[in-house]
Write a structure and sequence with these properties.
Length: about 325
């Protein structure tokens, strides 16, 4: 084959491989592995962006915070500065930049999904979108990491006393205070380093949602015990840099927003499905599952209250009460 024909054939093959070769490829960074429901949501976003822009734009999805050298907290900051196009990350990862984002994950703020949906899809969610805009990030749609459950290799966690002395990997600053309130020894660590830290016994345990992370990222291979204590809810979102957003006309904005909304609705659905079937699956994989009663949950709620109060103060009591009021109405 001549060089010219070879080049042409290669170009056609590449187009076939990547779908329509968009005039522009935008970059989206997220911080879990490529089997997570986050990643699936990102891939769906890419598909929908291509479809809605008629192939003009596509989105390359980078897992494991590759674009920030594995630093999951840096992604939002980069998008805020306009150095990166999109971020998909969870609330807790944004707290170094926007401390108010910790409001969602206050310990035991939420009791169920109805309360979550009423806030995320209601006025409290809009308020958070406004706050994020002040940091150069346009939140396009909310998805779900989920209720975070605790796992470890030492013993079943049935009461706050069982947490004492356990070395716990946590993602972000608020969880350090929560773990300390429970008498555990927390250590902040990147997700990308967590799996091997669990395997090697550098830490005893961690906490993450079942459907989005523990099942698809096979955390059960490195952990023996899980307690479904539902102590903290963590939403995710797709955000775009304000700079990029401002450069688009109304039509393009609508296409991208619609793509994000559909992709996150899909991501939330598969996450909830995976969570619903997850406990049985984890048992099959040999995990010992402890499902606390309401009274046992209440003991965890009482024990983590100091962390709630400290962070409610930092977040701002007015913002916290916007959430509490909506939840009380549910
Ligand atoms: O790092 C974690 O624990 C993860 C993947 O859930 C978050 O991004 C908060």
């Amino acid at each position: 084959m001549s060089l010219k024909r070879f080049a042409a054939a290669t170009a056609i093959a590449l187009i076939a491989l990547h779908g329509a070769a968009g005039a522009e490829t935008l970059r989206l960074s997220h911080n879990t592995g490529d089997t997570s429901t986050w990643h699936k949501g990102g891939e769906k976003f890419n598909e929908l962006v291509q479809e809605k822009t008629g192939g003009e734009t596509d989105v390359r999805v980078f897992p494991m915070a590759q674009l920030t050298g594995g630093d999951q907290m840096k992604q939002a900051e980069m998008v805020g500065r306009g150095a990166l196009d999109f971020v998909m990350t969870s609330a807790i990862n944004v707290t170094p930049l926007v401390p108010e984002m910790a409001v969602f994950s206050l310990p035991y703020l939420y009791g169920n999904y109805d309360e979550v949906d009423a806030t995320v899809d209601g006025a409290p969610g809009e308020k958070m979108t406004e706050i994020m805009a002040g940091h150069g990030i346009v939140v396009l749609a909310w998805g779900e990491n989920g209720f975070r459950e605790v796992t470890n290799n030492v013993r079943p966690i049935k009461s706050p006393e069982d947490m004492k002395g356990l070395k716990m990997r946590v993602a972000g600053p608020m969880y350090i205070d929560v773990m300390e309130a429970l008498g555990a020894n927390p250590q902040q660590m990147q997700w990308t380093e967590t799996f091997s830290a669990l395997q090697q016994g550098v830490v005893d345990g961690q906490e993450n949602p079942i459907g989005a992370v523990i099942v698809p990222l096979r955390v059960y291979e490195a952990q023996k015990y899980i307690t479904t204590w539902h102590y903290s809810y963590d939403p995710i979102f797709i955000g775009v840099s304000q700079k990029l957003w401002d450069s688009w006309d109304e039509e393009k904005r609508e296409q991208i927003r619609a793509a994000a909304e559909e992709a996150m609705a899909y991501q939330k659905e598969i996450t909830r499905e995976g969570t619903a079937s997850g406990v049985d699956f984890l048992k099959e994989q040999g995990m010992e599952v402890f499902v606390p009663s309401d009274a046992e949950i209440d003991a965890f709620r009482q024990a983590t209250k100091p962390a709630y109060d400290k962070w409610a103060e930092r977040i701002g009591p007015d913002l916290v009460s916007v959430f509490e009021t909506t939840i009380a109405e549910e």
